[in-house]
Design goal:
Elements: H1 2-11, H2 19-35, H3 38-55, H4 60-82, E1 83-86, E2 93-98, E3 105-109, H5 110-136, H6 139-148, H7 153-182, H8 189-198, H9 200-220, H10 239-262
Antiparallel strand pairs: 1-3, 2-3
Helix pairs in contact: 2-3, 2-5, 3-5, 4-5, 6-7, 7-9
Length: 263
């Protein structure tokens, strides 16, 4: 999946937009996603999805796969948000289940549903802002933006090495799984998970061996303790996108003011 994301970040239709402008736009939308009314947060989620799917022409399947994977973590937190154990007062529980051999009940309250709904709206909005940056901006250009924002050089180098390490880890895992399958390994999702768990130790060893080769390659190419990033190249922002972004942000702020005054 990481190779797919990396390829889309270089081939999307918004690739030529300046990385600084896209980062600033995503940062503003991220702040608004945190501060605005839940209804407007859902509007932001839909609008940022339009930017990715329609404007950047990101395939809906790839976008939905990463979006759903990230949203899975929210689903895993739902039991902690919704479920309560005890003796609910009259009318408090929306859904109640008597625990066997106990005097207490497992129940869900309307307040818990409301809290989970508010959190879901905020998660959707913030997640779409992050996906906009992930799908439309190559990682190298993000590092150039961070360097212009005075990010320390050591942090940028660590980010670059960790990003490269993800590809090494993915390639090593794929090679080991392919070798296991060619040797007659078991098929099926459960069997594959067991094989992955069994190969965890050798996977780490093989990955570190390839990482040692990467470090040796850097040294032979003249690495002197500092990875030099290419200079940031500024490009003009098309009027169409600049007008849409400014208009959308202004409408969101006006809608927030209208909601605050109406309440």
């Amino acid at each position: 999946m990481i190779r797919r994301i990396d390829a889309l970040s270089y081939s999307n239709a918004l690739r030529q937009l300046p990385a600084m402008w896209k980062s600033l736009f995503a940062a503003v939308m991220f702040i608004l996603s945190y501060a605005l009314h839940p209804v407007l947060q859902l509007v932001i989620a839909g609008w940022m999805t339009v930017w990715c799917v329609l404007y950047a022409k990101i395939p809906l399947r790839a976008y939905g796969l990463l979006f759903g994977t990230a949203l899975l973590f929210f689903c895993l937190s739902l039991p902690a948000l919704l479920l309560e154990i005890g003796l609910p007062t009259a009318g408090e529980a929306v859904i109640s289940l008597q625990l066997p051999a106990l005097t207490r009940s497992l129940y869900i309250t309307a307040e818990g549903l409301h809290r989970a709904g508010l959190l879901l709206a905020r998660v959707l909005a913030c997640l779409t802002c992050c996906l906009f940056i992930i799908f439309t901006t190559p990682f190298g250009e993000l590092l150039q933006v961070l360097r212009r924002l005075r990010m320390p050089q050591i942090v940028l180098e660590l980010m670059l090495i960790m990003y490269r390490f993800l590809f090494l880890l993915s390639d090593t895992a794929h090679g080991m799984m392919l070798a296991r399958r060619l040797r007659g390994g078991r098929r099926g999702r459960v069997a594959k998970l067991r094989e992955v768990a069994g190969m965890a130790g050798s996977l780490f060893a093989n990955t570190m061996h390839r990482y040692y080769g990467l470090s040796q390659g850097l040294i032979t190419r003249g690495y002197m303790g500092e990875i030099i990033l290419p200079p940031y190249v500024s490009r003009p922002v098309p009027r169409r996108f600049a007008v849409q972004a400014c208009t959308g942000i202004s409408l969101l702020l006006l809608a927030q003011l209208w909601i605050l005054r109406s309440w």
